[in-house]
């Protein structure tokens, strides 16, 4: 089962740097993610090298050791390392921890490398933890130039399409600033403040338009715009400075109680508040999907292009929808193959089971599929009804039964038993016994045998009755098929409505963050910025309306296409119905005979 696959006793390297300097994905890490069918909460930590990022990630994993803690000035973590553990508070969910290479390591030489690592952490996570030391002063914020470059390294749609900042807000993670070795009093202008108020104070903009003011404001504006959901934790020194390098091996008694208390609050906040990772359009990310995303983004970066969320979703949808069809068919086939062991069955029984398994298969498909806007993949979910297999099994059973029942009579005929005086009456009596036994034992069979012996004339009427029964069963099948089709349309509507609801929630979050920021700017005298934000809010509303209208048209088309396909399949059944009725009406009635079998 899936949870058994999550027993990772230590982290593994997810993204490394190849010998040519390009980022590459580790296949063994992708294999781990491929096995995780559960939704994932992804927490990534970024920050300058040698700031103790790994200690917090080990605590989130519920361990003392795991991610490497460097005891020298050299940056320990290279690339991005991953640790998957069962989520401690969310059932049937996996917590994926990503520890990133320390930023600002002068030995690396490539200035773009850090921005790529930072961008990947933003793209892959549902919560981004920024780890820094000391205070949130101007130097700490200036060191976050990566935030100002994010929109150059991440695209929402194809690179030539202009996209408003609000679009980024929909898909970026929530943001936590963890300030380590914090020694200040939480006090602003003589008033006690909370950690969050301290962060907001550090992100305050300055009035003015000089280049100096603009440079000061730019990283702050970016953090405010891209990460409207912000939280701050200030950690005191954990222990005597001489012991900091050995933090993972220290006894808890040697670690400051205040440090442990903040660490506990930090972990609990992430466990309670970090959301499951979602794709653009609200599709829940599982471990398997996360693996595909990692590969897509890293391959794109390695090719020299800019990762694009829209393109990632399109390629993801194709992979997932093809897999959803396969998964749905497997559900149907495994159920029917098990049923096949009991063949032959009555037609109404096999039709009922066919309906049951085909609905289960459709539900399985719907659960995994997304962005199947033209219904192409749903339409390819076609099921063999196993009726032919059932008929062949029934025919074989009838042949065997008739052979066994007629054996004594055939033997008597060969011995000349019926050629004696009174033999004709005995022949009629024996034949009637065979027919009665046959009808008693074979009346439920789908394929009543077309008997080729002398008895054919006698059994003609029984064959006609069997054909009429098959006709009734076909009519039953038409009713069930119609119910099936209605259920499929209902599931299509439900799926599309769920996707539209998630999109509306994404837009609402983006709108709320814009409105909050606008109110904050107006309250602090930034009228020009507030007016610009009002224009952005109006654009967001207009675009949202266009998306909703487009989705409504898409849904109407999907339903129309599905109903057209349903009508075609029903017409095939009606054609069969007409042919069977014509066959019944054209069959000759058995002539009167002296040897009659009722």
Automatic annotation (TrEMBL):
Protein name per the record: Guanylate-binding protein 1-like
Organism: Sinocyclocheilus rhinocerous
Gene Ontology MF annotations: GTP binding; GTPase activity
Region Disordered, residue ranges: 561-598
Alphabetical UniProt keywords: Coiled coil, GTP-binding, Hydrolase, Immunity, Innate immunity, Nucleotide-binding
Gene name in the database record: LOC107726347
Domain GB1/RHD3-type G, residue spans: 37-275
One GO biological process term: innate immune response
Lineage top rank: taxon: Eukaryota
Entry similarity comment: Belongs to the TRAFAC class dynamin-like GTPase superfamily. GB1/RHD3 GTPase family.
Matches recorded under PROSITE patterns: G_GB1_RHD3
InterPro entries attached to this UniProt entry: G_GB1_RHD3_dom, GBP_C, Guanylate-bd/ATL_C, Guanylate-bd_C_sf, Guanylate-bd_N, P-loop_NTPase
Claim: GTP-binding is one of the keywords in the record: yes
Stretches assigned to coiled coil: 450-499
Annotated SUPFAM superfamilies: Interferon-induced guanylate-binding protein 1 (GBP1), C-terminal domain, P-loop containing nucleoside triphosphate hydrolases
Cleaved signal peptide residues: none
């Amino acid at each position: 089962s899936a949870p058994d696959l999550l027993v990772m006793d230590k982290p593994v390297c997810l993204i490394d740097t190849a010998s040519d300097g390009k980022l590459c994905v580790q296949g063994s890490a992708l294999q781990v993610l491929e096995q995780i069918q559960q939704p994932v909460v992804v927490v990534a930590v970024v920050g300058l090298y040698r700031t103790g990022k790994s200690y917090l990630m080990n605590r989130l994993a519920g361990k003392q050791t795991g991610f490497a803690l460097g005891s020298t000035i050299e940056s320990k973590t290279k690339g991005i390392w991953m640790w998957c553990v069962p989520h401690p508070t969310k059932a049937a969910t996996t917590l994926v921890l990503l520890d990133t290479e320390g930023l600002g390591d002068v030995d690396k030489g490539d200035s773009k490398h850090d921005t790529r690592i930072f961008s990947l952490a933003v793209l892959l996570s549902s919560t981004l933890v920024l780890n820094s030391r000391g205070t949130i002063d101007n130097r700490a914020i200036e060191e976050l130039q990566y935030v100002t470059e994010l929109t150059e390294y991440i695209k929402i749609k194809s690179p030539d399409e202009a996209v408003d900042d609000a679009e980024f807000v929909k898909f970026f993670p929530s943001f936590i600033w963890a300030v380590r070795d914090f020694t200040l009093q939480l006090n602003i202008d003589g008033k006690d403040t909370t950690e969050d108020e301290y962060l907001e104070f550090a992100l305050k903009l300055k009035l003015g338009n000089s280049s100096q003011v603009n440079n000061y404001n730019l990283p702050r504006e970016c953090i405010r715009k891209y990460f409207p959901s912000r939280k701050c934790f200030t950690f005191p020194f954990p222990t005597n400075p001489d012991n900091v390098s050995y933090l993972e091996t220290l006894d808890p008694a040697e670690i400051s109680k205040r440090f442990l208390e903040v660490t506990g609050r930090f972990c609990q906040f992430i466990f309670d508040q970090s959301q499951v990772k979602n794709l653009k359009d609200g599709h829940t990310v599982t471990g398997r999907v996360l693996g595909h995303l990692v590969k897509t983004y890293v391959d794109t970066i390695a090719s020299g292009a800019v990762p694009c969320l829209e393109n990632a979703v399109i390629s993801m949808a194709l992979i997932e929808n093809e897999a959803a069809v396969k998964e749905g068919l497997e559900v149907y086939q495994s159920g029917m193959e098990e049923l096949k062991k009991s063949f032959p069955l009555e037609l109404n029984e096999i039709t009922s089971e066919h309906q049951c398994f085909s609905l289960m298969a459709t539900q399985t498909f719907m659960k995994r599929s997304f962005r199947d806007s033209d219904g192409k993949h749903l339409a390819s979910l076609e099921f063999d009804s196993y009726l032919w297999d059932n008929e062949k099994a029934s025919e074989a059973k009838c042949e065997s039964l008739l052979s066994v029942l007629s054996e004594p009579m055939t033997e008597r005929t060969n011995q000349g038993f019926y050629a004696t005086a009174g033999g004709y009456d005995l022949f009629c009596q024996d034949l009637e016994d065979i027919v009665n036994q046959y009808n008693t034992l074979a009346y439920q069979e789908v394929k009543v045998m077309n008997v080729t012996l002398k008895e054919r004339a006698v059994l003609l009427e029984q064959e006609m009755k069997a054909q009429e029964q098959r006709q009734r069963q076909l009519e039953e099948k038409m009713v069930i098929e119609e119910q099936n089709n209605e259920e499929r349309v209902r599931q299509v509507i439900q799926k599309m409505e769920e996707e539209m609801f998630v999109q509306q929630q994404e837009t609402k979050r983006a709108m709320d963050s814009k409105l909050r920021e606008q109110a904050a700017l107006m309250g602090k005298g930034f009228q020009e910025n507030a007016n610009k934000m009002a224009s952005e809010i109006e654009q967001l509303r207009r675009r949202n309306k266009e998306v909703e209208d487009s989705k409504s048209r898409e849904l109407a088309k999907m339903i129309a296409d599905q109903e057209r396909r349903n009508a075609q399949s029903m017409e095939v059944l009606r054609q069969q119905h007409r042919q069977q009725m014509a066959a019944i009406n054209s069959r000759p009635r058995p002539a009167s005979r002296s040897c009659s079998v009722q």
